[in-house]
Here is the input.
Amino acid sequence: MGRCHEISYKYLCFNAFLMIRYSAPGKIILFGEHAVVYGEPAIAIAIDKRFRCEISKSGQNRTTINGLIFDPEKQNYLNCAMEKLGIDEELEIHTSSELISGAGMGSSAAVTVASIACLRGLTDDIDKKNIAKMAFEVEYEVQGNASPIDTSTSTQGGGIILSPTKNSGFLWSIKKGETTWNIHKSDIPKLNLVLGNTGVHSPTGKLVAKIKEFYKRSFFARDIVNQVGLIVQRGHEALKNEDLVEVGRLMDQNQHLLSCLGVSHPKLDALIDAAREHSYGAKLSGVGGGGVMIALTDEPEETSKAIEEAGGQAYILPSTNKGLKLE
Ligand code: MEV
Here is the structure.
């Protein structure tokens, strides 16, 4: 009996006629990146830019992706998901993405979440909790460290808050070592957010590993992480009260702490400075070291123009309540 048969009580075997298609969104982090890895709270929103994945059994004796031979080194998230699920069949995989990879927009989380749903052969009820948990395990393994913020936001969609305690809107908990993250839905008010891409590629794993070393060795880094946690709590209150002036002020403070942690970049600083003239506040979003920044504003057109004039690519960001979705 092959592996596929052994696990078929959980996962459908791929057959020649079964093709499964899922999509999952990217995200932006409003408050708390990096500190969330150490159990501090964080707030993210799913964005209306998606990764799409389509998987069927291959008619050939090799796995292909978008017509090319599957390279486990290049497709490390997908490969790790396949290993975790014990998939040893040859597959035909097609993907497309509206997300910029290595920019802090949650591209690897969307890849992981949509691929796991396809690979599990899910065609009816989506068990979001288990997919979010497995997707986190994949990100953790590939990157060497992670929090579940990107993968849970991509799975669930909408506004998401992670905190050490369980509060209203609780969805699921994820535990790794000593750290437990409680994942909640958060009704974030409608925000006008503009995203600015520096164009500087910044893979998550490297920077997360660098901060891990800094955190282990330095009281200063641990203090910054604690301060970010306090800002997230205040940011959550300000969002609940729809106090955009306070939200913007706290975004600026969060950016200052991220700079102290060493995860900003001169290009991020230039886009953030330019955007602030028309915004309540602005900060990097995601891993930093390049990648993207976000600005909260009532003047999205002017903010976009300022970001472009400072050398970035600007996007006015619609958020989405749609998380993982069968296509
Ligand atoms: C990356 O989008 C967010 C980080 O906090 C890493 C993580 O939480 O896994 C930098």
Summary: The chain has ten helices and 13 strands.
